[in-house]
Design brief:
Layout (H helix, E strand, L loop, with lengths): L2 H32 L6 E2 L15 E6 L4 E5 L5 E2 L5 H20 L27 H9 L6 H16 L7 H10 L1 H12 L7 H12 L2 E2 L1 H12 L17 H11 L5 H7 L4 E3 L4 E6 L3 E6 L2 E2 L6 H13 L14 H5 L6
Antiparallel strand pairs: 1-9, 2-3, 2-8, 4-5, 6-7, 7-8
Bound molecules: glutamine.
Glutamine binds next to loops.
Length: 342
């Protein structure tokens, strides 16, 4: 190794130490301060979800160049639930294009609950892909030769985002299938208006399976970092989604991703995010980082209480709001990215 190379390697290592170590400390500090009070309620309308330990709390941050920062139970497995929704919307877009997908699913936020049985009266479309109606319509658009092939495509898509093979939690899946009458009602209403083609039970099975994909907070952070990185998984280098559709996912997450708290979240945090009833939140800071959080206790709108708190704190501390005025010369990504050796 030449003298010059040694010097640049030293510089790289010391720069990494100087930026990454304080960030790790800050993350731990933010994590600790977000723990209490651990209020809210674990979701129980899908009986299997009620078995979650209310004390679980994990947070992960992954940068667009693949550095990872974990605190707490970031390896605890849970089911992805509604956090799956933007990704299925992406799969539908890649296969059918914008025009067809938008003829079946709107992109308009509604201040109603995620499981609301409402369609847009003028177009008969579900309002957006982040509520159950829109997500079931997106699942209907997943192509395949037969049902196993459709499930395979859904799983391999999540595999690209997570950088590993993903599995379905069969007891949550069975629990959803046994109790999902409201989702069946929504699907039938959409079939009545020609918004889904069916076979309906098969599409519902696919939807219940996508909700039952097993992830960790770390996985959510990798998925978020993939979206932050123009669709390229920063750990594997694999293109998880065509780059032209990344903005479609981020836009609907930004306007509709946090249920009927979406407007407030966009105002306060200013970064696209998606939550799920098992307690996960996935949050994307475009061009910089992905954040994944998991804590099962939810507020009245169905968002993780500690997840909101910790994301809010990270966004505030590092000025992540995408509409933050001022110059961006000192972005968090620049802080954490070591210079390349010359
Ligand atoms: N599987 C859940 C349902 O359909 C997903 C809902 C959610 O996470 N909000 O009700």
């Amino acid at each position: 190794m030449s003298h010059e190379q040694t010097t640049s390697l030293d510089a790289l290592l010391s720069r990494m130490k100087s930026a990454a170590a304080p960030f790790r400390d800050t993350l731990r500090e933010v994590y600790e301060s977000s723990r209490h009070p651990n209020d809210g309620h674990v979701a129980d309308y899908i009986p299997e979800l009620a078995r979650a330990d209310p004390e679980w709390f994990g947070v992960s941050v992954v940068t667009v160049d693949g550095q990872t920062f974990d605190v707490g139970e970031s390896d605890q497995a849970f089911t992805i639930q509604s956090v799956s929704k933007p990704f299925l919307f992406g799969l539908a877009l890649e296969h059918h294009g914008r025009e067809h997908v938008l003829s079946k699913i709107g992109v308009q936020p509604i201040g109603e609950a995620f499981n609301s049985i409402t369609l847009d009266e003028a177009t008969n479309r579900p309002f957006n892909p982040m509520i159950n109606a829109g997500a079931i319509a997106a699942a209907d658009l997943v192509p395949g030769d037969d049902f196993p092939d459709r499930v395979r495509r859904m799983r391999s898509m999540f595999g690209r985002y997570c950088g590993k093979e993903v599995y379905i939690d069969n007891s949550v899946f069975a629990s959803e299938r046994a109790t999902g009458h409201r989702n069946r009602a929504i699907a039938h209403l959409m079939m009545n208006f020609g918004m889904v083609d069916g076979p309906l039970e098969e599409t519902l099975e696919l939807y219940f399976q996508q909700c039952s994909v097993i992830v960790t907070a770390r996985d959510l952070a990798v998925m978020a970092a993939t979206l932050a990185n123009r669709g390229i998984n920063p750990l594997t280098g694999e293109q998880a989604i065509a780059p032209e559709f990344v903005k479609d996912l981020l836009s609907v997450m930004h306007t509709c991703g946090m249920y009927d708290y979406a407007g407030e979240w966009a105002y306060r945090l200013g970064v696209p995010a998606k939550s799920g009833v098992s307690g996960g939140i996935l949050c994307v800071v475009p061009g910089q980082i992905g954040i994944g959080t998991f804590s099962p206790k939810l507020d009245a709108k169905g968002n993780s209480v500690r997840g909101i708190r910790v994301c809010q704190e990270i966004a505030n501390r590092f000025g992540l709001h995408i509409f933050e005025a001022g110059d961006r010369t000192s972005s968090l990504a620049d802080e954490l990215t070591p210079p390349r050796p010359v």
